[in-house]
From TrEMBL:
Subcellular localization, as worded in the UniProt entry: Mitochondrion inner membrane
Needed co-factor(s): heme
One annotated GO biological process: oxidative phosphorylation
Pathway the protein takes part in: Energy metabolism; oxidative phosphorylation
TM region positions: 21-41, 61-81, 102-129
Gene field: COI
Domain spans labelled Cytochrome oxidase subunit I profile: 1-156
Lineage of producing organism: Eukaryota, Metazoa, Spiralia, Lophotrochozoa, Mollusca
Species per Swiss-Prot/TrEMBL record: Barbatia reeveana (Low-rib ark)
Catalytic activity: 4 Fe(II)-[cytochrome c] + O2 + 8 H(+)(in) = 4 Fe(III)-[cytochrome c] + 2 H2O + 4 H(+)(out)
Record-given protein name: Cytochrome c oxidase subunit 1
Length: 156
C-alpha cells in the first residue's frame, strides 16, 4: 500500500521486504510451542525478572519466548528500515512532505519509533537471558542488580 500511495512501483528493497515477512512465522511458532511446554511462559507477556529468573521459572518455555521476541524484533527492524527508505527516497518528484497522506506519515513515524525502541528491548531481553544462563546479576538484587531496570527497558 505504501508504494501505491507515494507513486512508486515497489518497495526500495523488495527482498528485504520479503525476508522481514518470512522471518515472522518462526517466532510465532516458537511462541505457540512455548505455551505448550510445561510451565510455559509463566511470568506472562511482560517477563518481569523476579518471576522470570531461572530459580523461579526454570522451564525452556521462557527461553523460547525470549528468543522468539529477539527474532520478531529483528524482522520488525528490517521492515521499518525498508518503510523509511521507501517513503524517504522513492516518492515521486512532485510529492512534497506536506501533501503526503496521513497513513504514510503514520507509517514513517511508527518505523522511527520501532527503529529506536526495539534495540532497547533486545538489550533488556539479552540481559534477562544472560541472567538466566550466564550467571550475571543485571536484575538480581542479591548480586547488586535492579529488578526495576527491566521494567524501564521493557516499557521504554
Amino acid at each position: 500500500l505504501i508504494p501505491l500511495m507515494i507513486g512508486c512501483t515497489d518497495m526500495v528493497f523488495p527482498r528485504l521486504n520479503n525476508l522481514s515477512y518470512w522471518v515472522l512465522p518462526g517466532p510465532l511458532f516458537m511462541l505457540l510451542v512455548s505455551a505448550l511446554i510445561e510451565g510455559g511462559a509463566g511470568p506472562g507477556w511482560t517477563l518481569y525478572p523476579p518471576l522470570s529468573a531461572s530459580m523461579f521459572h526454570s522451564t525452556p518455555g521462557m527461553d523460547l519466548v525470549i528468543f522468539a521476541l529477539h527474532i520478531a524484533g529483528f524482522g520488525s527492524i528490517m521492515s521499518s528500515l525498508n518503510f523509511m527508505s521507501t517513503i524517504g527516497g522513492a516518492r515521486f518528484y512532485g510529492l512534497i512532505p506536506e501533501r503526503m497522506p496521513i497513513f504514510i506519515w503514520a507509517m514513517f513515524v511508527t518505523s522511527w519509533l520501532l527503529l529506536f525502541s526495539l534495540p532497547v528491548l533486545a538489550g533488556g531481553l539479552t540481559m534477562l537471558l544472560t541472567d538466566r544462563h550466564a550467571n550475571t546479576s543485571s536484575f538480581r538484587p542479591a548480586g547488586g542488580g535492579d529488578p526495576v531496570l527491566f521494567q524501564h527497558l521493557f516499557w521504554f
